């Protein structure tokens, strides 16, 4: 295979791996560009396992950025949330990636709490469904060691959020209830869907007003939503959009996106509400191409 053929064949894997490792679209695209240039220097004719070799290149490129990302998060004002991927074109290759892989925004948020090694093993096994033998080859670790890391990592995540298989897709009814509350100030129907220990996380990046700490419990989330409604935080128009894992909301004012609202929904109810408000994470949203919900089937 030629370099460009290898890249096209495994670009989907590269995108998923890099995005889940780093949590930002720009960094993911930069990684793919770096790997594309590096792959041109590889003699692929003698590479026995192109898939594993290509994935290792992506992971190694990610490692160089993770330390810088950690340093930035240490001084980041308030909680840091991954940049959501909004699909505004069903023909976009990202739509196929998101539909094919087991990606949800809530899972992406959880993955960011892992160590580099845990994150790598979990993404390759749980999200991309690599065989343990493949992961062993990529990371140059024994297969039993890889199995142990994955088992420990999955348990670590489930201790935080419950069984990962219990995470539910975000449907339009749930999103509509939030929009109704944001437009009227009455969040009663939405609040009924929350778990008792629900957590609302806001990411303003120090550039817009946002809660600097998570809001925890149904009572406090209700008070918070009603409070910011009275202060005018929900003024604007609302669009139901498609992200990985189901529907989300884009709030816009005079054609400019100001907030992306996402949810983590489990069998017991809504466990998390996420407000992404950092302008650097939402400026790519193209309001003129937002797909109406009825076109997303």
Automatic annotation (TrEMBL):
Gene3D superfamilies, per the entry: Winged helix-like DNA-binding domain superfamily/Winged helix DNA-binding domain (1.10.10.10)
InterPro entries reported for this sequence: ECF_Sigma-70_Domain, NTF2-like_dom_sf, RNA_pol_sigma-70_dom, RNA_pol_sigma70_r2, RNA_pol_sigma70_r4_t2, RNA_pol_sigma_r2, RNA_pol_sigma_r3/r4-like, WH-like_DNA-bd_sf
One GO term of the biological process aspect: DNA-templated transcription initiation
Domain spans labelled RNA polymerase sigma-70 region: 7-70
Residue span(s) of domain RNA polymerase sigma factor 70 region 4 type: 107-157
Stored SUPFAM superfamilies: NTF2-like, Sigma2 domain of RNA polymerase sigma factors, Sigma3 and sigma4 domains of RNA polymerase sigma factors
Xref: Pfam families: Sigma70_r2, Sigma70_r4_2
GO molecular function, one term: DNA binding
PANTHER family documented for this protein: ECF RNA POLYMERASE SIGMA FACTOR SIGJ, SIGMA 19 FACTOR
Complexes and interactors: Interacts transiently with the RNA polymerase catalytic core formed by RpoA, RpoB, RpoC and RpoZ (2 alpha, 1 beta, 1 beta' and 1 omega subunit) to form the RNA polymerase holoenzyme that can initiate transcription.
Name of the protein in question: RNA polymerase sigma-70 factor, ECF subfamily
């Amino acid at each position: 295979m030629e370099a460009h053929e290898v890249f096209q064949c495994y670009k989907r894997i590269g995108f998923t791996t890099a995005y889940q490792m780093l949590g930002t679209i720009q960094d993911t695209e930069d990684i793919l560009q770096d790997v594309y240039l590096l792959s041109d220097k590889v003699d692929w004719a003698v590479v026995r396992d192109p898939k594993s070799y290509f994935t290792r290149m992506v992971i190694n490129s990610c490692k160089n950025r993770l330390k810088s990302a950690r340093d930035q998060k240490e001084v980041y004002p308030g909680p840091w949330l991954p940049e959501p991927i909004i699909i505004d074109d069903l023909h976009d290759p990202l739509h196929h990636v998101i539909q094919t892989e087991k990606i949800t925004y809530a899972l992406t948020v959880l993955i960011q709490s892992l160590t580099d090694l845990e994150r790598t093993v979990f993404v390759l096994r749980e999200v991309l469904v690599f065989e343990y033998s493949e992961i062993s080859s990529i990371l140059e670790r024994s297969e039993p060691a890889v199995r142990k890391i994955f088992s420990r990592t999955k348990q670590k995540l489930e201790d935080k959020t419950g069984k990962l298989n219990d995470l539910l897709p975000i449907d339009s009814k749930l999103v509509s209830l939030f929009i109704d509350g944001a437009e009227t100030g009455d969040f009663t129907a939405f609040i009924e869907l929350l778990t008792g220990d629900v957590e609302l996380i806001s990411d303003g990046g120090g550039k817009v007003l946002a809660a600097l700490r998570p809001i925890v419990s149904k009572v406090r989330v209700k008070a918070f939503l009603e409070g910011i409604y009275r202060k005018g935080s929900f003024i604007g128009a609302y669009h139901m959009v498609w992200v990985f894992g189901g529907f989300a909301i884009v709030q816009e004012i005079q054609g400019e996106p100001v907030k992306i609202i996402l949810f983590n929904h489990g069998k017991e109810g809504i466990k998390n509400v996420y407000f992404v408000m950092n302008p650097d994470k939402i400026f790519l949203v193209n309001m003129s191409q937002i797909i109406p919900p009825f076109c997303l089937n």
